[in-house]
Amino acid sequence: MATYVISDLHGDYEGYRRILTKIGFGEDDVLYVNGDVIDRGKDSIKILQHMMMQPNIFPILGNHEYIGCQALRFLMNEITEESVESLESGLIEGLLQWQEIGGRKTMDEFSKLTRQEQEDILEYLEEFSLYEEVAVKGKIFVIVHAGLDNFSQDRKPDDYRLHELIFKSPDYGRVYYKDKYLVTGHLPTMAIEGNARPNRIYMANNHIAVDCGAGYDGRVGAICLETFEEFYSDD
Question: How much is the pTM?
Answer without folding.
Answer: 0.94
